[in-house]
Specification:
Elements lengths: L5 H13 L15 E3 L5 E3 L9 H11 L4 H15 L6 H6 L3 H7 L6 H19 L2 H10 L2 H9 L6 H10 L11 H9 L9 H11 L5 H14 L26 E2 L4 E2 L8
Antiparallel strand pairs: 1-2, 3-4
Length: 270
């Protein structure tokens, strides 16, 4: 289960740093899905027992686009309080929602006009293609990952990261490593992925080089690392080479402590 790659080494080190923060309410006591890492500690890498409803996960991911969890979570809570409830099909409820009212409900998430339109269109698509949110959830859980991903990518406003998050958190699929802006930046800056690699190229590399059971944890823990250490403009290593826990395995592509300059890895050498 342990592969000899730099990407896997990063994920293993993130596990030691974040432990139960790699996943919300993460249990690190061990169990049947535990994977042994270098020092014989065990961690629940896999989240197959904590599936989210697929349509709700899709909505949540749309709300999180280009904003922080701190902003998107209250918007998601407000949406559910307004449009969900016992004996209510969330897709049906949102498909018939007034766009301006929905936009106001989720305004805290930013880009609320665009996101409200996308959510309504996506809800209508779920009803047209599957008949209900529950039927869509069964499709995501039971169909092949490649078919689900292709289907999701055919929907306007659903990109690769959103599709992969639904596969990971709702489909319970191991081997899925969604790539957001943090993941895209980190693994190119470290020199693990080529500096000019796009999001899909980074995803393919990580899913190849990280054990399948560790990909989900790697995704969420990498985001945490990107927020705390490997930020876009002021990474920790810019101030102190020893401040970053990945300093010894990072190539610092695009980071120049001598001058204080930080550029996107793709711009190095231009």
């Amino acid at each position: 289960m342990v592969t000899d790659t730099r990407a896997e080494a990063v994920v293993n080190r993130l596990a030691h740093r974040y432990g139960d923060r790699g996943f919300p309410e993460h249990n690190i006591d061990g169990g049947q899905n535990a994977v042994t890492i270098d020092d014989d500690e065990s961690i629940f890498w896999d989240r197959t027992g904590d599936r989210q409803d697929a349509f709700d996960c899709l909505v949540r991911t749309i709300l999180s686009q280009n904003t922080s969890d701190k902003a998107s979570q209250p918007a998601h809570d407000a949406l559910l309080a307004t449009y969900d409830g016992d004996d209510i099909d969330l897709a049906e409820s949102l498909a018939s929602a007034d766009q301006s009212m929905l936009a106001e409900t989720i305004s805290g998430a930013g880009l609320y006009n665009q996101k409200s339109e996308t959510i309504i269109d996506t809800a209508a698509w779920v009803l047209e293609e599957f008949g209900s949110a529950a039927a869509f959830d069964r499709y995501v859980k039971d169909e092949s990952p490649s078919a689900v991903r292709e289907t999701l990518l055919s929907v306007r406003g659903v990109g690769p990261k959103t599709a992969d998050c639904v596969l990971l958190f709702s489909g319970g699929r191991s081997g899925v490593f969604p790539v957001d802006t943090h993941v895209h930046r980190i693994y190119r800056r470290m020199g693990i992925a080529p500096p000019d690699a796009d999001h899909e190229a980074v995803r393919e590399l990580l899913e190849q080089d990280v054990s399948a059971a560790k990909c989900g944890f790697g995704h969420t823990a990498s985001i945490q690392f990107g927020r705390e250490y490997c930020t876009a403009r002021r990474p920790a290593c810019l101030e102190d080479p020893d401040a970053c826990p990945m300093g010894d395995i990072c190539d610092q592509v695009g980071v120049y402590p001598e001058t204080g300059e930080v550029v996107d890895p793709a711009d190095v050498g231009e």
